[in-house]
Recover the amino acids of this structure.
């Protein structure tokens, strides 16, 4: 473990949790942390106030507490306090955590990784409870849920606040053991991160014990203490649920993958494949009940979709391309890739920009154009092996001019914020402004082409090839995306690149339309 890299990761996570300006998921994470930290010391009044901070969760907790599953006597529940007195303190606490995670798992504004990790948390907690259904068990079922679900807390933090590096770690994990992949990128494992962050709270020792790594000694013998039993069952549940969510495991290999996990625990917590599959059926039923409480369709629930697919022997829902690309392929240059690798790389790279823009297109969103254009510039530069990618947008003080507002590369650093494009410049960009058409220049020094290439394009070196892509909406040009290479290189676009660039610009066009109609707000 790299101590300096680990300290950097921990500091970034702590800052993100404390920053009120970060995403809405921050409040959910804080609530989960506080609910867990006060698991056995919080009063009824404090629990009511904590849950009551989120009106949506409050309404859903009360609604669930009025169902026969939680309230078979049919006693009317109107407040969180009523729910606690009727259903039980610990069940309401766990219900609130489950609802928060389930809502996060189905929230369209969250990334694919966030949704899956939130679903993994819920499933692990529920599976641990189901696997402990022996009559002779003395474990606290509600404590078991908290311990197993919080075991993925570090992963939830990383996928929420450090998503780009989280994706990089997941890419490395296709080529090496997952713990090593996360240590390579973050300096520590997700489990260790969750333990470090939660150690700053007042978590009971029983929960903190369950967040430690399982040692060879502990897993080689039956548990000698209640704490060891919870630790083992929590880790076992995470391992089994990870198999459920693993897109690289085919339906035919599913039971074998479960058996591999069970074999690790054969001496400490022996279970059969049949027992696990029966428990997964129960978990799927509980998840369906939870989804109804948060009004989430099964198709939008990663937990339901994956569990139903596994239990029916079907393929898992198709993950986005960037979730399947390995770090080994990322480390190749575009020129070294064969045709199939190049398509895979293009699909994966542009998919992240598509997801970023898709999140912004939801009605009521507050959109930072910088986030949109930076995601496009980064994807375009990486996918096509550009040296520079710049996004020009219209100036408020003079809408006829476009300035280099966003971008990446040395050329962007030289010309940032300069109003370089205008109809009266009589250069290749003014031609694009007039015609609103794509332009690809493979040799900026060829014949008459040289006379329409502006001087500033060479500000960071001798640009040899140039591509100009206008973004139009309702016949008006709103912005221009430009890419360059130098040293006599040529810009090489394949069919996948062209398809993605057309689609992304259509999405940005829709974005401008929604901003004009005030369906979304630019900030």
């Amino acid at each position: 473990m790299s101590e300096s890299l680990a300290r950097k990761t921990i500091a970034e996570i702590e800052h993100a949790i404390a920053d009120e300006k970060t995403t809405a998921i921050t409040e959910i994470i804080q609530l989960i942390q506080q609910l867990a930290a006060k698991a056995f010391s919080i009063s009824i009044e404090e629990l009511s106030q904590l849950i009551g901070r989120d009106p949506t969760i409050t309404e859903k907790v009360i609604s669930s507490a009025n169902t026969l599953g939680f309230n078979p006597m049919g006693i009317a529940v109107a407040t969180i306090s009523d729910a606690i007195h009727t259903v039980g303190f610990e069940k309401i606490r766990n219900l609130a955590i489950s609802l928060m995670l389930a809502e996060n798992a189905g929230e369209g504004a969250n990334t694919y990784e966030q949704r899956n990790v939130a679903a993994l948390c819920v499933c692990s907690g529920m599976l641990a409870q189901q696997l402990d259904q022996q009559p002779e068990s003395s474990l606290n079922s509600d404590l078991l849920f908290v311990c197993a679900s919080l075991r993925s807390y570090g992963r939830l933090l990383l996928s929420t606040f450090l998503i780009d590096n989280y994706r990089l770690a997941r890419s490395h994990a296709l080529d090496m053991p997952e713990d090593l992949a996360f240590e390579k990128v973050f300096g520590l494992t997700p489990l260790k991160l969750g333990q470090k962050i939660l150690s700053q709270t007042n978590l009971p020792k029983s929960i903190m014990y369950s967040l430690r790594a399982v040692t060879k000694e502990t897993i080689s013998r039956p548990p000698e203490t209640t704490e060891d039993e919870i630790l083992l069952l929590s880790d076992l549940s995470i391992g089994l649920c990870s198999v459920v969510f693993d897109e690289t495991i085919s339906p035919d290999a599913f039971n074998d993958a479960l058996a591999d996990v069970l074999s690790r625990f054969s001496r400490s917590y022996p279970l059969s494949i049949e027992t696990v599959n029966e428990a997964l059926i129960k978990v799927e039923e509980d998840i369906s009940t939870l989804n109804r409480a948060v009004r989430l369709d099964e198709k939008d629930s990663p937990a339901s979709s994956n569990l139903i697919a596994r239990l029916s022997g079907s393929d898992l829902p198709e993950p986005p391309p960037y979730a399947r690309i390995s770090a080994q392929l990322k480390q190749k240059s575009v020129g070294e890739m064969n045709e199939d690798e190049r398509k895979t790389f293009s699909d994966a790279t542009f998919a992240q920009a598509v997801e970023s823009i898709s999140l912004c297109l939801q009605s009521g969103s507050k959109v930072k154009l910088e986030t949109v254009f930076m995601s496009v510039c980064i994807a375009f530069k990486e996918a096509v092996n550009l040296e520079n990618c710049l996004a020009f947008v219209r100036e408020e003080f003079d809408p006829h001019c476009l300035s280099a507002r966003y971008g990446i590369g040395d050329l962007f650093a030289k010309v940032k914020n300069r109003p370089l494009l205008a109809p009266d410049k009589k250069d290749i960009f003014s031609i694009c402004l007039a015609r609103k058409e794509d332009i690809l220049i493979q040799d900026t020094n060829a014949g008459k082409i040289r006379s329409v290439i502006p001087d500033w394009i060479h500000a960071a070196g001798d640009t040899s090839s140039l591509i100009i892509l206008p973004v139009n909406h309702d016949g008006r040009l709103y912005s221009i995306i430009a890419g360059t290479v130098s040293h006599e290189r040529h810009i090489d676009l394949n069919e996948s690149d062209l398809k993605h660039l057309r689609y992304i610009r259509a999405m940005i066009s829709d974005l401008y339309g929604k901003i004009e109609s005030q369906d979304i707000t630019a900030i």
